[in-house]
Write a structure and sequence with these properties.
Blueprint lengths: L1 H23 L5 H22 L7 H27 L4 H8 L2 H11 L6 H25 L6 H22 L6 H23 L8 H28 L2 H5 L5 H13 L5 H18 L5
Length: 287
């Protein structure tokens, strides 16, 4: 039962990250927000691990956890949010972010892992669906905000989360609470460096900011990343990361309810395509 519920919960939680970023951006510098979020998550997960008397990794394993967190949490979030704050439309960033499962599949194919034709077809159908969902946003914002640096930063974020997920796949022994604490510490280390370099240190102490922070720590960071770790340990990396294709369409639906953004028939068609593509990519080959 949990194997069925975990992917559903994960995509709902992961997609809420787009909404949180939009909600808190008027109230705090996003780089500073990322640092505080990751640092608090590390503390929360660490306390949970200590309470459970879980074993902590040492030596090389500890370093590998730090690396996974630095990539998946630190570089991914800092680079993508930096691109958005420098003018890249959130829809463009979401579209580039949806390339992550495709990048995972390409890497696995490059190292000799054979993927089923239906997996490739599902990934590309899903990405086409994401493109349709985001098409109205892309048309309204245009490409004027795209620069070499913002595109490079966005692609760096996608490469980082892809690499981090592949490193994560190799870390199957550690308690998830311990892994979450150490990996968020790795992400916070990246975030504090980026914050010191580019942050404006805006933080207006409004209730909306703290509501967003609590949600970001407990839901996407603690619950969402824990679900992602669990799924990567119990499934194929390509099939797990294919779920990320559903995040932008679900975020568009959430934006409709929270921010009254309009949805067009084309977007519903795109969502159906994205869902169908993910189901195809995650389906088992007969025989």
């Amino acid at each position: 039962m949990f194997r069925f519920l975990a992917p559903v919960l994960f995509v709902l939680i992961w997609s809420s990250g787009f909404i949180v970023a939009k909600a808190v951006s008027p109230h705090a510098d996003l780089q500073l927000f990322i640092f505080v979020r990751l640092a608090l998550t590390s503390v929360v997960m660490g306390i949970a691990a200590l309470a459970a008397q879980a074993a902590w990794p040492r030596g090389r394993q500890f370093g590998t956890h730090l690396l996974a967190g630095a990539l998946m949490n630190g570089v991914y979030l800092c680079a993508s949010y930096w691109a958005i704050t420098r003018g890249m439309a959130a829809g463009v960033m979401a579209l580039l972010g949806a390339l992550q499962p495709v990048f995972t599949a390409l890497y696995l194919a490059a190292i000799g892992t054979r993927l089923a034709a239906r997996t490739w077809a599902g990934l590309f159908i899903g990405f086409a669906g994401v493109s349709l969902v985001l098409a109205p946003k892309l048309a309204s914002t245009g490409a004027g905000s795209l620069t070499v640096l913002t595109v490079a930063s966005a692609l760096l974020s996608v490469v980082a989360v892809t690499a981090g997920a592949l490193v994560q796949k190799r870390l199957s022994a550690a308690d998830i609470r311990v892994a979450g604490s150490v990996q968020n510490l790795g992400g916070a280390a990246v975030a504090v460096v980026v914050t010191s370099l580019v942050s404006t240190y805006q933080w207006d102490n409004t209730s909306m900011l703290y509501v967003g922070l609590v949600w970001a720590v407990i839901v996407p960071s603690v619950i969402g990343v824990s679900l992602l770790m669990w799924m990567l340990r119990h499934g194929e990396a390509t099939k797990v990361t294919a779920l990320i294709l559903l995040a932008p369409p679900l975020a568009a639906i959430q934006a409709y309810f929270f921010f009254h953004e309009t949805l067009m028939p084309l977007q519903f068609i795109g969502f159906a395509m994205a869902l169908g593509g993910v189901l195809l990519a995650r389906s088992r080959t007969a025989g």
